[in-house]
Design a protein that fits this description.
9 helices, alpha/beta
């Protein structure tokens, strides 16, 4: 899930489900750090898998969803996955019917409407004071589950800039970006760990998780990011008020 507060949003922008999972896990801590309640909200890129340049293409093209069920196809060996070849996107958590089975024909229209709502909510974030786009390519099982389709997931400065620019055009405003990666999954243009004023790159140690990532490592990355950005440091003055509100609610429940 992405996280949305009164004037700050952390947007999961791929390239897999790990980012949404880690933002969901750390919502309470980030709320405390920022001095405002961050709520889980689903946005369009939370639970899909695609190289970030493919997500850039979706934002630039304005084609956000397949036009018909026939444009989706199963992915070899992955029962729950549906691949959209025209966009290079894998849907991993959609098209389930009430019985819990994949049924693209029966659920296509309702899923399309859901994604229309997700994109509408994304556009509404333009009113927030600060938007942080969070991307990562550190989901360990991608080579296994994608097989021959595991291509193009390396981060480059140009790919990150292009995705950030596409999102800024969609929203009509400036965004920040946090990119989390492994050594070996980012090219030399990102070697310094900091690529531009609005793009922050963090290298993390490889963990042993299947897909979700190491919670402690991600928590350190997110907290360090908040404390290192002037825009976000300014919002931390609300920590006292946020703590007071929480204590007040706790007192009233007694």
């Amino acid at each position: 899930m992405s996280l949305i507060g009164e004037n700050i949003a952390f947007v999961s922008l791929g390239s897999s489900c790990q980012v949404a999972q880690q933002l969901r896990l750390h919502a309470a801590t980030l709320s405390y750090e920022l001095g405002q309640d961050l709520q889980h909200r689903r946005l369009p890129f939370d639970w899909i898998i695609a190289p970030i340049e493919k997500l850039t293409g979706i934002l630039n093209s304005g084609v956000h969803f397949p036009s018909e069920p026939g444009h989706l196809r199963p992915h070899s060996g992955q029962v729950n996955a549906r691949y959209w070849p025209d966009a290079g996107v894998f849907f991993w958590h959609d098209f389930f019917d009430e019985a819990g089975a994949i049924n693209v024909q029966a659920t296509f229209e309702s899923t399309r409407q859901q994604y229309k709502q997700h994109f509408s909510l994304l556009r509404e974030l333009a009113s927030k004071q600060i938007i942080v786009l969070v991307v990562a390519n550190t989901q360990n099982n991608l080579p296994t589950v994608l097989g021959d389709q595991f291509q193009g997931f390396e981060f480059t400065l140009e790919k990150l800039r292009s995705l950030k620019s596409a999102c800024e055009r969609y929203l009509g405003r400036r965004c920040l970006m946090l990119a989390v990666t492994y050594q070996g999954l980012a090219d030399y243009t990102l070697a310094s760990g900091a690529s531009s004023p609005d793009i922050t790159v963090r290298y993390i140690a490889r963990d042993q998780s299947e897909w979700e990532g190491d919670s402690a490592i991600w928590l350190d990355v997110l907290k360090d990011y908040i404390r290192s950005r002037r825009e976000l440091r300014g919002s931390r003055i609300g920590k006292v008020a946020h703590t007071a509100r929480r204590l007040g609610r706790k007192f009233l429940r007694r």
